[in-house]
């Protein structure tokens, strides 16, 4: 297939779902009713939904077949054993604890290792990870490399940890306050940027120096492995599953949202080698998730995950996935819309701070752009900036390190013509960005405010 340059979807469509056309006037009304928070919209009023790639993928015929095969025995179901085998084939950790999604794995993990006085370093904590760390009274600290903080800086692995900063941080805070080190692969909040195996090895070496465990937040492990194969010396011919196993071999455990790189609508797990932590984790799991052979999931969900894990490491799929995301990003950059570079795996991140430079960070340029993309074209993206990260547990507010709007691409859902439409709308809005207003928050909860806050435009 190398002879042809057009990237085609490596699947055909046998079941379709209509999407509804609406007018800009109608969408204006929906926005007002939603308090200008795109999470509050009815999804039926969204034309192209790029809010998240989480749980929004299209399952394959084989996954649906697995759903039929699902065995709903309370304990020890064959579906559990198929799930376990599939997970451990890629991530051979001793204990695998299924959960209903990634944040449940985080809540259990930090329920075991967190607490007041503790601090968890990461390249960049995702919002739910940070919130689950902070909810226990612990502190979440981001130590991504300098390039990872600058949207236009080019680096093949912008998700890498600054290992000198990590070493200094451990010495400054005291190893006794740090239960583990976390690495998010790919780095979602930092622009979907990958982490190299070289960096994972260097982080491992720092952890070994201080006797600290290393955990992966591995939601997009397959996309990360694809970038390693493309960009890191020595991996061009290595099969993707082998690269994943190499990543896993450097860690002591993981949290996983199967809603991403297991291409399912719900699911996750926590895995680790430590027996004592695993016992505590299982006890917490039983309290709220369920018996340890199903967690918060039905047997049919476990089957869909087992099959999804086989499909996501397929090279044709990953080639299409990463190229089609780059197709969107490259077209926007060509149209003069600043984006985080290089283009990440699951999403294109528009640099709203630079595109809407007339709006100060605490008047939320990302929110303003996201609202405009919905109003003008029915496209729903997600602010990843000061709305999401600006507020601290003590109630104070400071600007986030970047003001981004993420256009996340659901797996196997939209075709190239959908994406061409997105390019047209973003370009149109980008050309008029100087006219967009800032926003203020008029209502917000104490945690994870971006999900439910209400806004009004600043006149
Ligand atoms: C990097 C990362 N970690 C954790 C999570 C949380 O997973 P879930 O939404 O399944 O709770 C997400 C979800 O978007 C994520 O992107």
Largest sheet: 5 strands, mixed
> Could you say which structural class the secondary elements and strand pairing correspond to?
alpha/beta
Query: Which ligands does the model contain, each kind named once?
Result: pyridoxal-5'-phosphate
Taking Cα atoms only, what radius of gyration do you get, to the nearest Å? Answer: 21 Å
**SSE order, as H and E?**
HEHHEHEHEHEHEHHEEHHHEHHEEHEHEE
Instruction: Sum up the overall morphology in one term.
Output: globular
Compute the number of helices: 16
In total, how many beta strands?
Answer: 14
- Mean pLDDT comes to 96
Trace the largest sheet across and list its strands.
Answer: 2-8-7-6-5
**pLDDT under 50 segments (min length 5)?**
none
User: How much strand content do the residues show?
Assistant: 5-15%
Portion in helices: 40-55%
């Amino acid at each position: 297939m190398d002879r042809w340059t057009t990237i085609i979807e490596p699947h055909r469509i046998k079941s379709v779902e209509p999407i509804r056309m609406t007018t800009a006037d109608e969408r204006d009304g929906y926005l007002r009713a939603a308090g200008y928070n795109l999470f509050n919209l009815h999804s039926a009023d969204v034309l192209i939904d790029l809010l998240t790639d989480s749980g929004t993928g299209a399952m394959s015929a084989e996954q649906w077949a697995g759903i039929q095969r699902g065995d709903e025995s309370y304990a020890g179901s064959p579906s559990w054993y198929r799930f376990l085998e599939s997970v451990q084939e890629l991530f051979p950790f001793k204990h695998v604890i299924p959960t209903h999604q990634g944040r449940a794995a985080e809540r259990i993990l930090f329920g075991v290792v967190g607490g007041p006085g503790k601090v968890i370093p990461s390249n960049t904590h995702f919002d739910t990870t940070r919130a689950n760390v902070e909810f226990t009274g612990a502190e979440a600290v981001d130590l991504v490399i300098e390039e990872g903080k600058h949207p236009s800086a080019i680096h093949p692995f912008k998700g890498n940890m600054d290992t000198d900063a990590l070493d200094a941080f451990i010495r400054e805070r005291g190893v006794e306050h740090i239960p583990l080190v976390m690495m998010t692969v790919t780095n979602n909040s930092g622009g979907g940027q990958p982490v190299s195996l070289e960096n994972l090895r260097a982080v491992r070496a720092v952890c070994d120096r201080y006797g600290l465990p290393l955990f992966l937040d591995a939601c997009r492990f397959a996309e990360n492995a694809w970038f390693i194969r493309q960009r890191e010396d020595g991996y061009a011919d290595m099969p993707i599953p082998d690269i994943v196993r190499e990543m896993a071999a450097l860690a002591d455990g993981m949290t996983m949202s199967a809603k991403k790189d297991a291409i399912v609508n719900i699911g996750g797990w926590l895995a680790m080698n430590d027996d004592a932590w695993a016992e505590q984790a299982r006890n917490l799991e039983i309290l709220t998730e369920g018996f340890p052979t199903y967690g918060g999931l039905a047997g049919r969900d476990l089957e869909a995950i087992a099959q999804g894990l086989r499909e996501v490491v397929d090279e044709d799929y990953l080639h299409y996935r990463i190229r089609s995301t780059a197709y969107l990003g490259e077209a926007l950059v060509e149209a003069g819309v600043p984006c985080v570079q290089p283009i990440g795996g699951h999403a294109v991140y528009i640099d709203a701070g630079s595109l809407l430079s007339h709006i100060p960070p605490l008047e939320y340029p990302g929110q303003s752009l996201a609202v405009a993309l919905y109003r003008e074209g029915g496209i729903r993206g997600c602010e990843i900036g000061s709305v999401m990260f600006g507020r601290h547990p003590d109630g104070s507010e400071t600007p986030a390190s970047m003001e981004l709007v993420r256009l996340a691409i659901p797996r196997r859902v939209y075709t190239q013509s959908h994406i061409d439409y997105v390019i047209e709308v973003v370009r149109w809005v980008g050309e008029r960005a100087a006219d967009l207003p800032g926003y203020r928050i008029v209502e917000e909860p104490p945690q994870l405010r971006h999900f439910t806050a209400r806004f009004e435009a600043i006149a």
